[in-house]
Amino acid sequence: QVQLVESGGGIVQAGDSLKLSCTASGHTFRNSAMGWFRQALGKEREFVATISWTGTASYYAGSVKGRFFITREYGSNTVQLQMNSLKPEDTAVYYCAARAIGNMGITENLGGYEYWGQGTQVTVSS
Length: 126
Description:
This protein is mostly beta strands. Helix content is 0%, strand content 45%. The protein is built from no helices and eleven strands. The protein is globular and about 40 Å long. The N and C termini lie far apart (40 Å).
């Protein structure tokens, strides 16, 4: 059974940094792209960042570009999201996602991800 488990969420102040981590188990995702999405209260889930299976290609939502950084070692089942200069509008539940086994391409499309974690809450106070 495939499981994605996120960790690292918490409550921080505006301007602080936080690092999220996600580890997949139950299958190897060495050939699959992975990503992060978030969902604020009362809003739809939105794309944050994605990274290729090699860890060499990544893509970010405009709202986080330059502040958030997604990393992954080559072929690893673990992906991390370093979040800097956090803003109150970054407050949301953050979800880790993985594409279907062997699907190497990165995408911002929510429907392109087959496996999801349970989410971790990030709250940024002003």
